[in-house]
Amino acid sequence: MDVGIIGTGNMGRILTEALVDGKAVSPSSIMITNRTISKAFSVKQQYPEIRLTKNIEKIGKVCDLIFICVKPHDVYHVTKKLHPFLTKDKCVISITSPINVEQLESVLPCSVARVIPSITNRALAGVTLVSFGKKCRQEWKECIVELFNHISTPVEISEDITRVASDIVSCGPAFFSYLTQRFIQAAVNETKIDQEKATILASEMLIGLGELLRQGHYTLPTLQEKVCVKGGITGEGIKVLENELGDIFEHVFQATHLKFEDDLSDLRNQYTIK
User: CB of 95 within 8 A of CB of 149?
Assistant: First the structure.
């Protein structure tokens, strides 16, 4: 199977690296391109066996499974370039959340799917969110799940939870990275610990927390119960969080959903499905 990847920006590159490092596909079976070709060339330097092309049409001709890893407003223009070369036996995957599989099916003659990755996939971990088009062939569904099992836990989702699922899986690492940086900075500001040591301690704490959850030793509530001894220091910190966090996370989801609705509105005119 030949795999095409159109767009080697942040997520396109992460996807390429994860698929190769996770041994989901061999580098020689991958063909990549990017509008700024130097970005694609830097990926090829990392994996010399990957094939590089300057035009999207060649990927449409050669590849069986094609990933579109460009900005939402550019997806439609990529599909128009691919269309003449797509047979019913091929499959196209978009990795952007504002464009649904129904819209992709309205402009493409082959099997389609949407796979929303996460930066955690670079560590061959985390979740990928999967949605299949109604006309997506069963063999492609099985192939996609098998492919992403190498680099993540693929979870099939319905359209109505796309945004919130993406907020948790894809945006979540950035949100919690920000919170951790604020946590570290507060420790530096309020005590004698330096930035480097606080960063090491916080990073290793997060890794350990992840392992506890992954290995199934605790759930999030039971973990908190185990650490938060009645009348102890942790409990005092939890009280501050309870009093001061308020509805901050509700506001985060409100903001992301509002931006998502704006993106959907801008994109609807490009597709025949309204």
Answer: no
Both tokens of 142, joined, read: 């099985």
Per the structure block, which two tokens stand in for 238? 């939890």
SS3 171: helix
Q: What are the pLDDT tens digits along the chain (274 aa)?
A: 999 999 999 999 999 999 999 999 999 999 999 999 999 999 999 999 999 999 999 999 999 999 999 999 999 999 999 999 999 999 999 999 999 999 999 999 999 999 999 999 999 999 999 999 999 999 999 999 999 999 999 999 999 999 999 999 999 999 999 999 999 999 999 999 999 999 999 999 999 999 999 999 999 999 999 998 778 899 999 999 999 999 999 999 999 999 999 888 878 777 755 4
Q: Which domains does the chain have, with CATH numbers?
A: 3-157 (3.40.50.720), 165-254 (1.10.3730)
What kind and span of H or E run contains 221? helix 220-227
What share of residues in the chain are helix, strand, coil (percent, to 5)? Answer: 60, 10, 25
Strands 127-132, 111-116: pairing is antiparallel
Q: What is d(CA 38, CA 192) in angstroms, rounded to the nearest whole number?
A: 45
Write down the pTM of the prediction. 0.91
**Residue 23 zone, left/alpha/beta (φ > 0; ψ -120 to 50; rest):** left
* Sequence-separated (6 or more) residues with CB below 8 Å from residue 220: 213
